[in-house]
Task: structure prediction
Amino acid sequence: MQRDQLVFDIIQKELQRQRHGIELIASENFTSLQVMQAMGNVMTNKYAEGYPGRRYYGGCEFVDETEQLAIDRIKQVFHCEYANVQPHSGAQANAAVLLAVLKPGDKILGLDLSMGGHLTHGSPVNFSGKLYQPFFYGVHKDTGLVNYEQLEEVARKEKPKLIICGASAYSRDWDYTRIRKVADEVGAFVMADIAHPAGLIAKGLLASPFEHCHFVTSTTHKTLRGPRGGIILMGKDFENPFGVKDPKGNTRMMSHLMDMAVFPGIQGGPLEHVIASKAIAFGEILSDEFTSYARQVQSNAQAMAKALVAKEYNIISGGTDNHLMLIDLRNKNITGKKAQETLDKAHITLNKNAVPYDDKSPFVTSGIRIGVPAITTRGMKESHMQTVVDLIDKVLMNIDDAQMVSTVSKEVHEFMLQFPLYPELS
Ligand SMILES: Cc1ncc(COP(=O)(O)O)c(C=O)c1O
Result:
């Protein structure tokens, strides 16, 4: 077969784009070379429906080994009893939990998408809002902090079967104890979606949800710095409360229902090449090097927030506990859309984002979301955050000056030369 140079050339251009730019998309990161290369392996050829030791196909002895390693390592990372490493993405992980514990039409309660929540937490355009009956809580208008009183009020009124916490655009830690308390009162399960801050939770830098939440889901490609994918975890396995029994009449454990929800519930064959890469990434998370990385992420985010506040950028909740922050640009008279598009021209990538109580459409928005996991992987420290903020500010304060934007893009290239990305790749 002839090498498809057309596609490889496009991939090469993407590598150059990643090398030259300042990557501030909060949900992105740069994997290690071994994590990335492991995804391009022969395990992509293998069908392995089922789980290690109990597959529907022959020849699974080696994919069993890598999948078991991935499971064992991520359990060690989070000190938890159960892990399923097969979800193809974060959305799939959430779909599996909902399938495992809910019936169509059951009530769920999650953080409103427009306040920082995720589509899979009950949005009407997502399966979670179509198959189940969604209710929402928000954040306080004045502080930007989760409105736990509202969460409790809606939970007591609607008695949802599942309360979902976790977010895509929330810069503060969560009170899992408080959420579990009201969940117990109304007979709900709690699911924490830690897709964003998982890497910081892994290193004890944020509160752990495992003691309080029945189910924990995550992506593996954000702060965990693994390949694109999802995981489902349980701090403690427990007998399923739905009365599902095995052929001997013993009550099945929840872990069994969860495995069944992933396969055959929502997925077919697992991506064993990606699972091999997950195993490597989870091994990296166990290292001291990753501990330093996670600490640096948190320090960089705080330094970035401080530098932005000094230039009178309005950060929702006034700062950050984790790796990201949400900025309301209304006092600068710039929309999120315009900011994103213009910064993109200067090779500073981030995303427009609705701010709580936004008066603009989700296609325009009043805000931007900034995250530091990727630039921290590039090697940036606290002192570099000032430079990044200066570059952002130069673009935003000269938003209609194409010449200035072009000058900044050159400064960005120059600045990024200090932080080599995949130097092993030509
Ligand atoms: C909180 C949260 N959950 C789930 C997801 C979905 O992950 P994926 O894009 O891998 O499906 C995201 C993605 O941004 C997220 O922020």
